[in-house]
């Protein structure tokens, strides 16, 4: 590690100019979220202090660009939001969306509730629980899109997400380099769970490191499911 890096370790990252392109006239909200994460988020152990110098490049921007694959006015459920990724940057970038954040840990949902109230983000609701729990399934309507980042391997993620996606809706999982391998390994099991057309997509190509996604479509009907099984497709 160079002296230069040591000197900057833990220092908040300045707002990158490209953030304006992603958050538009809501950039001040994104800056406020970055401030809260840097202060309360670190203090309460929701993010590591090492994340502070890369809060924008590794987290806020990479999650904000998810907006590119979400249609106008869609409903979104973010499974395993943790400190709010990707759900909060998405809600900041896209006030037209209705977003539900799900996480089982009280410490995290308390923080999320506070962020939602203080920014404020009236388009966001926080639900405490495991995505697969009956109480959670009762509390939320199946959404157009179910997002997640760093929550579970694809098959488990699909098992938790599928019941939360409306027929014809999408699974959108932020993944790293493992995306194609995860699809090759799990597509048959994922198809049995009712999610087809799995593909790897990139969004945020304006960023130095674009965001890699796995996208799949929830089977709409029993006939749709039979068709997918017959053709034995990853599609
Ligand atoms: C590694 S963290 C990632 C947090 C956030 N998505 C991010 O990218 O920073 C995984 C999160 O998934 C949550 N989680 C684990 N199992 C879950 C489940 N069954 N349903 C919903 N959330 C879950 C954990 O509480 C944790 O907040």
From TrEMBL:
Alphabetized NCBIfam families for the sequence = rsmG_gidB
Which CDD domains does this UniProt record tie to the protein?
Answer: AdoMet_MTases
What Gene Ontology molecular-function terms does this entry list? Answer: methyltransferase activity
Residues that coordinate or bind S-adenosyl-L-methionine? 80, 85, 131-132, 149
State the superkingdom.
Bacteria
- A biological process (GO) annotation for this entry? methylation
Q: Which InterPro entries does the UniProt record give?
A: rRNA_ssu_MeTfrase_G (IPR003682), SAM-dependent_MTases_sf (IPR029063)
The similarity comment for this entry is: Belongs to the methyltransferase superfamily. RNA methyltransferase RsmG family.
What the entry lists under HAMAP family is as follows: 16SrRNA_methyltr_G
- Specify the species: Gordonia hydrophobica
Question: Which of UniProt's keywords are assigned here?
Answer: Cytoplasm, Methyltransferase, rRNA processing, S-adenosyl-L-methionine, Transferase
Presence of the UniProt keyword Nucleus in the record? no
Protein's job: Specifically methylates the N7 position of a guanine in 16S rRNA.
Q: What is this protein called?
A: Ribosomal RNA small subunit methyltransferase G
EC class: transferase
UniProt-annotated location(s):
Cytoplasm
Its EC number(s)? 2.1.1.-
> Quick one: which gene encodes this?
rsmG
Gene3D superfamilies assigned to the protein according to its UniProt record, in alphabetical order:
Vaccinia Virus protein VP39 (3.40.50.150)
